[in-house]
Every structure is written in C-alpha cells, then in structure tokens.
Amino acid sequence: MEGFLWLVTQMTLLLTGAAVIFFWLGWRWRAQDARKLETALNTRIDAETSTARSAQEDRDAARMKDHLHLATQTKLESDLLEANDHRRNLERELIRVHDDLKIAKRDADQRAEDATTAKAELVPVQNEVTKLSSELSQAQRDKARLEKEITELRARPVVVETAPVQTTVAPTTETEASEPAPVTKPKRARKTPAEPKPKAPKETKKSSKAVVDAQTTLARLETDLNAKQTLLNAVKQEQEEWQRRVATLREKGKDPAGLGLAQKSLARAESDVSVAANAVAHLQHQQTALRHSLEQAATITQDDDLTQIKGIKAVLKDQLHVFGVRSFQQIAAWSDDDVEAFSELLAFKDRAKRDEWVKQAQELISKAPGQTNS
Q1: Basic and acidic residues bias located where (predicted)?
Q2: What is the pLDDT of residues 186-201, one digit of tens each?
Q3: What is the pTM of this model?
Q4: Which DSSP state fits 162?
Q5: For 112-138, what is the mean pLDDT?
C-alpha cells in the first residue's frame, strides 16, 4: 500500500512538472506570436499613416488647385469684361466714324453738285467768250484792212492842172490835199446767234433732284436704323446674359467679388441698351417726319420763301426743299419732336429751336395768310 501511494505521488509530481513545462512552453510560444502580431500591426499602422498623410497632401494640393482655378476664373472674367468694354467702345467709335463718313460723303456730293452746276453755268459764258473772241478777231482783220487802204490812199500822187502862163492848182486847199479822202468803214454783217435750246425750268430740275436726294436720305436712314437695331439686339442679348450670370452667382453665394463685377457689367449693359434704344427711337422719328414731309410736299403747288425765317439761308432752304419742307405752314405745324428730328437731319443742332422757326413761321402766316400754302 505504501508503495502504491509512493508511486501515485511520484506520478503526480511528474504530471505536475510536465504540466508546468507545457504551460511555460505554451506561454512562450504565445508571446512570440503576440510580438509577431504586434510587429505586423505596427507595420500596418505605419502604412495606413503614410497613406493618410499622402491623402492629406493630395487634398491640400487639390484645394490649392481649386483656389488657383478660382483666381484664374476671376481674372478671366475681369479680362472678359474689359474686352467687352473695349468692344463696345470700338463699336461706338465705328458708328461715329461711319456717321462722319456719311456726313463727309454728303458734303462731297454737295460739292460735286455745286461743281456740276458751276460747270453748267460756265458753258454759256465760255460760248459767249468764244463768240466775242471771234468778233474781236474779225474786227482786228477789218482794222488791218482799213489801215492798209488808208496807207494806199495817202501814197497816191496829187493831180495838178497846168496852164501856159500860170499854174493852176485844182481848187483844193493844202490842208484838203494833204488829208486823205474819208473812208467809210464797211458795215460788217453780224451773225445771227443761233437760238438756244430750250432748257427745262430751273424749279423743275430742282424738284426732281430733291426727290432723288430725299429718297437717298430715306435709304440712309433705313440703313442707319437697321444698324442701330442690330446693335440694340446685341446689347439686349448681352444684358440678358449678364442678368442670368448675376442670378446664378446670387444663388451660389460663393463669389462676392465675381458678383460685384457681374453687377457692374449688367449696369453698363443696361446703359448701353438705353442709349441704343434712344438712338433707334430718334432714327424712327426722323424717318417718320421725313416721309410725312415728303407726302405734304407732293400737294404743294407754290413754294414759300423760307429765307424770310431768321436762321434759314440759301443752303438751308435748299436742304429743306430736299426734305420736302416748302411752306411756312409745314414748319408752323412742327412739334418739338419734329424740330429735333429736322435739326438732326439738317446737321444744325438746336438752330431751329434757338431761332424759333415755328414761331416765326406762324407769325409770317398771320401776316400774309393768302401767300402761304396749306
């Protein structure tokens, strides 16, 4: 029995030692695995940290690019606004140059017309000069012929009758003998001038020219009106574009600087629209006033002397005739808009208003109502 107990005790001790040894070995193996796992986790954490750092750097770079893009966009919009302003200035300058060219062309046409009239008036004078030169040449030839005859008469010898006792001279005094016989200048038949060709009355020619010039003026107004209407449509489109851009920027609310620039551009576009609309309205009124005046001129049988109105000289009178204004009654019926329209057509700004043409025409009508045209 004691041997059995001793054996059990020994076996227990052996088993306990084996268990301790196995426990120690297991703990060591687990510690090694834990260290390996910790190393792997640290490596993974380092990799994740590096990745996060790279992502942060990428985000910072993207944010910088966004700022650069925004600054570039703002600069481009500013450059676009300046380019639009420059384009509008160039368009205004082009319109002004076009108007100056039209005025210069009209002046050149007027000078050419004056030159043609002067040439036409010079032809009869040249014909008369040629005729007088021919007559002068004929008179010089007649003078030379007469001088030759006088010389021949003076060179003839004096005839003297002689007698046996005394010499008797013909009853001619010394003075009479020395003087040649009077020579009668033959009358030269004057050429009968050819009858001039009948010319059309001056007033008729002037009227036909006025119709042509009036039609030319109407065509010019139509061209100008089309150009102004095109410009008005363009600035209206630009205004609508800026209105949409301002509305978009207000909705986003992220670019106050761009919104301010857009609002300034919108204000300029609205101003341009107003100016272009006024120009179109003025041209339309000029066209309407001119057509109405031409319709009235077709019913006028006798023109009034418009130079009786202070401020209207011969040139302005002719220009008014071109535009169909031929009577005091027409000027007296002008409204303020008509006065402005004809002032612009005549290129004499404010003269009609300053000299009170309407009032003067009314006074002339009241003084001599029977001599005016209605």
Answers
A1: 192-206
A2: 444 444 444 444 443 3
A3: 0.40
A4: E
A5: 80
Q: Say if residues 304 and 328 touch (Cβ distance below 8 Å).
A: yes
Angle between helices 256-297 and 202-252 (to 10 degrees): 160
If one counts every other C-beta atom within 10 angstroms of the C-beta of residue 207, the result is 14
Residue 211 contacts residue 259 (beta carbons within 8 Å): no
Q: How many CB atoms lie within 10 A of CB 192?
A: 6
Residue partners of 109: CB distance under 8 A and separation at least 6: none
CB 225 within 8 A of CB 287: yes
Does the structure show a pLDDT above 80 at 365?
Answer: yes
Token pair, residue 210, equals: 């006025």
Which residue is listed with tokens 């204000």? 267
- Residue 211 token pair: 């119709």
The residue type of 119 is K
Mapping DSSP onto H, E and C, the string for the chain reads CHHHHHHHHHHHHHHHHHHHHHHHHHHHHHHHHHHHHHHHHHHHHHHHHHHHHHHHHHHHHHHHHHHHHHHHHHHHHHHHHHHHHHHHHHHHHHHHHHHHHHHHHHHHHHHHHHHHHHHHHHHHHHHHHHHHHHHHHHHHHHHHHHHHHHHHHHHCCCCCEECCCCEECCCCCHHHHHCCCCCCCCCCCCCCCCCCCCCCCHHHHHHHHHHHHHHHHHHHHHHHHHHHHHHHHHHHHHHHHHHHHHHHHHHHCCCHHHHHHHHHHHHHHHHHHHHHHHHHHHHHHHHHHHHHHHHHHCCCCCCCCHHHCCCCCHHHHHHHHHCCCCCHHHHHCCCHHHHHHHHHHHCCCCHHHHCCHHHHHHHHHHHCHHHCCC
324: left (phi over 0), alpha (psi -120 to 50) or beta: left
Q: How many CB atoms lie within 10 A of CB 56?
A: 10
Using CB atoms within 10 Å of the CB of residue 155, give its burial: 0 to 12 exposed, 13 to 18 middle, 19+ buried: exposed
Q: Read off the amino acid at residue 217.
A: T
Name 88's Cβ contacts closer than 8 Å, sequence gap at least 6: 235, 268, 272
Q: How confident is residue 180, by pLDDT bands cut at 50, 70 and 90?
A: very low
- Type of residue numbered 130: T
